[in-house]
Amino acid sequence: MSIEKKDIIDYITEENGKKVLSISDHLQWDDMDHLLMLQEKINMYLSAIETGQVSDYYPNATNGYVICLYLKYEPDEQGESFLQKVKYFFNNSGYEFKYEILR
Question: What is the pTM of this model?
Answer without folding.
Answer: 0.88
